[in-house]
Amino acid sequence: LAMLLLRNIASFIAPNLTFKMMQKKMSFTGLGSKQFESTSDFGYIFSLDSVKNKTSIQIRDTLKDAQLGIAAPNLTLMDLSTKTSTSLLSLAKAGRPLVVNFGSCT
After folding, report:
1. Contact 37, 22 (CB under 8 A)
2. In whole numbers, what is the pLDDT of the chain averaged over residues?
């Protein structure tokens, strides 16, 4: 919540500086910043609606039960090299098992 308040205050006091800082942060993290034209475009990222949406999705996914013989959930995955979204089941091929490794890569 503190970050939301600070972003909103900074955007009100110095919108151009805040926008340049956000663009720099977005380009540093590898996320595209060309789609943003002003500080208001960053609004949803730091809004309570965004936090609420992400939290409800995480809770929903956590409460799902795995059941033998039931189709796997078709989760949305992020390809880290191309920054595109793809569904889990789109990676499955006929005659080849789909293995999901939940281990750490570090």
Report:
1. no
2. 76
Query: pLDDT tens-digit profile of 35-82?
Result: 677 766 666 766 777 778 888 888 887 787 777 887 777 888 887 778
Beta bridge partners of 79: 84
Query: What are the two backbone dihedrals, phi and then psi, of residue 64, each rounded to the nearest 5 degrees?
Result: -70, 140
Residues 43/52, Cβ–Cβ less than 8 Å? no
CA dihedral sign, ordered 6, 11, 13, 14: positive
Buried b (16+ CB within 10 A) or exposed e, 30-39: eeebeebeeb
b/e map 73-96, b = 16+ CB within 10 Å: eeeeeeeeeeeeeeeeeeeeeeee
